[in-house]
Design goal:
With 231 residues, this protein is α+β, with helices and mostly antiparallel strands. The chain is built from 8 helices and 9 strands. The longest helix has 40 residues, at 25-64.
Length: 231
């Protein structure tokens, strides 16, 4: 065995020395990794410089440009290739609906997930499959996006409910507490009282009041509290 010229350990065989190999396998691998990393760093730096130069060249050329709008409208522009009016027309055209398309959402949102969640919140009757077909997303992706909609914060909401009881029109205040949206609670009360006259609100003059939890309404389980307020 012979000594490696790098690490100083006896790892070089006679056959390796005959072939001119004076470094052990470990040291040779480390040297290859080091040179590869140096090459990649130099290559990345070269590409970054070229890209920066090309960008600066495009910017300087456009800033120095003075002539007719390159969109063909005939207007004279300075410091830009396309005039403002043509850019605005292109923007409107890009947002125009094509044949067979419908607009699902229009508004300021931070990202695509926010657009889906906002549309789903405005249309609580839509199922996951309806939203999947509308936005062309997988059910798994929708599940993650709509997690906040399916798990709303606990809240307490009062409703004025007008319905028939024993042939008479009755007005009562129904309070629902628990983890469900206001719209989910309202829709469930319309089914429970068999009336469409359910509105968010309260009236201190009404003495008969009923309190439900989201469980009672079938949103989370079953539970009910009914009481007449003491005067």
């Amino acid at each position: 065995m012979a000594t490696c010229i790098d690490c100083g350990e006896d790892k070089i065989t006679v056959e390796q020395i005959k072939r001119g190999i004076l470094e052990c396998k470990d040291c040779l691998n480390e040297k290859i990794k080091k040179r590869s990393a140096e090459f990649r760093a130099k290559n990345d730096a070269r590409h970054a410089r070229k890209e920066a130069q090309a960008k600066a060249s495009r910017t300087s050329h456009e800033e120095a440009y003075s002539g007719s709008c390159k969109n063909g409208c005939g207007k004279v522009v300075h410091g830009e290739y396309v005039c403002f009016a043509c850019r605005e027309k292109a923007k409107v055209k890009s947002f125009a609906l094509k044949s067979g398309e419908i607009e699902l959402w229009r508004g300021d949102v931070k990202d695509g997930d926010g657009r889906v969640a906002a549309y789903a919140s405005e249309n609580p009757d839509l199922s996951y499959r309806d939203l999947r077909d509308a936005f062309r997303l997988s059910l798994g992706a929708l599940s993650k996006i709509l997690k906040s909609r399916q798990n709303p914060k606990a809240s307490r909401v009062s409703f004025l409910v007008r319905y028939e009881r024993g042939g008479e029109k009755v007005l009562t205040v129904v309070t629902v507490r628990g983890r469900a949206t206001t719209e989910q609670k309202r829709l469930r009360l319309t089914e429970l009282y068999k009336t469409g006259d359910v509105a968010v609100g309260d009236d201190p003059s009404i003495s008969w009041r009923t309190e439900y939890t989201a469980w009672d309404l079938g949103l989370r389980g079953r539970h009910k509290i009914g009481s007449k307020r003491q005067r």
